[in-house]
Amino acid sequence: MKILAVDDDAFILELLGLFTAKVGFPNVTKAASGPEALALLNDSSNGYDCMLLDISMPEMDGIELCGRIRAMPAYSKTPIIMLTAMREKSYVDGAFKAGATDYLTKPLDVTELGARLRVIAELVAARRSVQALTHDAVTLVSNTPAIPLEREIPIEGVPGLIEYTALGNYILQLSDSGLGTAQVVAAKINDIEEIYEKASPAEFQQLIVTIATALSAVFREFEGALAYSGNGVFLVMFYKESMEPSAGLERTLQLLIDKKGLTYVDGTQLEAIVTIGNPIRPNPGKARRDQQDL
């Protein structure tokens, strides 16, 4: 896995090279600033599988750099880990909204860094596998590749939507105080296997985008962040003092979906009914313990 590390502190950059090599990832290119990193990324002869970004840097901070990287088609989905001393919720929120995949605070723990990089390596390998599957896939409409049902589908331009891995990491990074009013719900498309079998790849992807857009609209007032995990399941984290009943959310969501009038290529109605589970309060402490047990 080829890594780009960006930090204005030469000592930290040297440590990063040593740490990543120690945990099995020795291929690291170093940049001392955002502009230097962008120059490397714009060089088509380079290609990076993962990026480690500091936040507090002159000229261009790491959050701005993350956003600039996400705007580059070649790196719109490349895993980005923020490595920073900034622990405040505003920085965590800003980083994930800019497109960060994960967030680690300094001083760095070698074991934890290694665990996060191994997760990233598995993610990179899985994406390569999907690309290999979809490259030769038979398509039915608009040359849209068939993505396996259990996989995430790339979705662009939906407010509040981030990658599934990033959403899990975002919840883990928030302190108990930051999660005080947070709730998490799951939204599941009913009869997803039947829809997947009947729909063309383009129709199925349009369905997922439609539901993601509707979920974004429903939860916008609650500062919601959402992700698609595959198998017709979305997760949404939002902030609200009182627990939000799922029945009202379901009705509002279904109205938005029905207004789209989705159809199959043969003109028949694509009826998508979404069930929203009861909200829960996330427990990052338990999630961390479970993650360590794994």
pLDDT < 50 runs, ≥5 residues? 133-142, 286-294
Radius of gyration: 20 Å
**CATH class bucket of the largest domain:** Alpha Beta
Q: From the coordinates shown, what is the CATH architecture of the largest domain?
A: 2-Layer Sandwich
How many DSSP H or I helices?
A: 10
**Tell me, what's the shape?**
globular
The secondary-structure element order is EHEHEHEHEHHEHHEEHEH
How many domains make up the 3D coordinates? 2
Strand fraction = 15-25%
Coarse structural class: alpha/beta
Map the helices and strands.
Elements: E1 3-6, H1 10-22, E2 28-31, H2 34-42, E3 50-53, H3 62-70, E4 80-84, H4 89-98, E5 102-105, H5 110-135, H6 164-173, E6 182-189, H7 192-198, H8 201-219, E7 225-230, E8 233-239, H9 246-259, E9 274-276, H10 284-293
Parallel strand pairs: 1-2, 1-3, 3-4, 4-5
Antiparallel strand pairs: 6-8, 6-9, 7-8
Helix pairs in contact: 2-3, 3-4, 8-9
